[in-house]
């Protein structure tokens, strides 16, 4: 069975929004190697509505590698209750998921293939975690306090117990922490 895996850039104060404003001076060769390994293990990407709307106008014509080739050529599913259609430049590998997220994710997990990755999409990650649909949460914790922006966790989120399955620190001080849901006892 395929896994649903999220990889997020995150600040010390929990901000995941607009990492382009605070993470590039920490993006070193260790992080690049980790990103390359992460995208090599996925052949499907889930995007939340906001990430889709931000990325759809940028990535289809981008030449920033290796991510441009990956995101443009990988099958994408956009999770949204408000959109009627989705497009990705000249690529036809994008589908809209509307109402039944749990059913659709379960269907995707049963298909043959590599991991199903989640790019950005903090609200989607929270929803998948809340509904026990996320198999792995990789946080790239940057040694910076962003001070403001959308945070991964909200005060109203319910408690979830996770277990640390891997960790490393990059040469620029980014802690890459990989968690999986802890089995219920």
Overall average residue pLDDT? 91
Question: Care to count the β-strands?
Answer: 8
Reported for the largest beta sheet, the result is: 8 strands, mixed
Can you tell me the residue ranges where pLDDT is under 50 for at least 5 consecutive residues?
Answer: none
Return the structural class. Answer: alpha/beta
CA(first)-CA(last) distance:
22 Å
What is the number of independent domains? Answer: 1
What would you say about this model in short?
With 185 residues, the chain is of the alpha/beta class.
What does this structure look like?
The chain is an alpha/beta fold. The protein has one domain (4-181): 3-Layer(aba) Sandwich (Dihydrofolate Reductase, subunit A), CATH 3.40.430.10. Helix content is 24%, strand content 28%. The chain is built from 5 helices and 8 strands, in the order E-H-E-H-H-E-E-H-E-H-E-E-E. The protein has helices spanning 29-40, 49-55, 67-73, 101-110, 122-130, and strands at residues 4-11, 42-48, 75-79, 94-97, 115-119, 136-142, 162-169, 175-181. It has an 8-stranded mixed β-sheet, sandwiched between helices. The longest helix has 12 residues, at 29-40. The radius of gyration is 16 Å and the shape is globular. The two termini are 22 Å apart. The model has no long low-confidence stretch (mean pLDDT 91).
Topology (SSEs and partners):
Layout: E1 4-11, H1 29-40, E2 42-48, H2 49-55, H3 67-73, E3 75-79, E4 94-97, H4 101-110, E5 115-119, H5 122-130, E6 136-142, E7 162-169, E8 175-181
